[in-house]
Amino acid sequence: MVKSVSRMDDLSGLNEKDGGKYVKEYILEACVDSVESAMAAVEGGADRLELCGNLIIGGTTPGPWLFDEIRKRSDIRIHALIRPRFGDFCYTDAEFSMIKHAVEDFRKMGAEGPSWLICHKFLSRL
């Protein structure tokens, strides 16, 4: 289960267990598009990052150098957003080829998984 927490004092996803200790029952994922925002998310208790480029326009595939810089500073789990452009989520064959290459590249770099929204006609080809 993925739960977004908008305030640091929101503990509704935590239960008292094991002798009064709080145990997380969710994964806190932070969308980040810079080294600074990634490190702030790590310091704030994120379990996983969704690494994006251009969050201001809804997010696109980040550059590999951003992944590398974050990996140098943290071993946090990283999912890379795979989205070749802003707008809708139905892609041309050329864009789908870019998606496939980006997925391969981020897997080789050690990303735990890609994140994407995609038109259903391409799902079986991934």
Helix and strand layout, with pairings?
Layout: E1 14-17, E2 21-24, E3 29-32, H1 35-43, E4 48-51, H2 64-73, E5 77-81, H3 93-109, E6 113-115
Parallel strand pairs: 3-4, 4-5, 5-6
Antiparallel strand pairs: 1-2
Tell me what you see in this structure.
It is a single chain. The longest helix is centred in the C-terminal third of the chain and has 17 residues, at 93-109. With 126 residues, the chain is of the alpha/beta class. It has helices at residues 35-43, 64-73, 93-109; strands at 14-17, 21-24, 29-32, 48-51, 77-81, 113-115. It contains three helices and six strands. The strands form two sheets. It has a four-stranded parallel sheet, covered by helices on one side.
Low-confidence stretches: 1-12
Binned, the helix content reads: 25-40%
Task: Give me the count of strands.
Answer: 6
Provide the spatial order of strands within the biggest beta sheet. 3-4-5-6
Number of helices: 3
H/E element sequence: EEEHEHEHE
Computed over alpha carbons, the radius of gyration is 16 Å
Report the span from N to C terminus: 24 Å
Structural class: alpha/beta
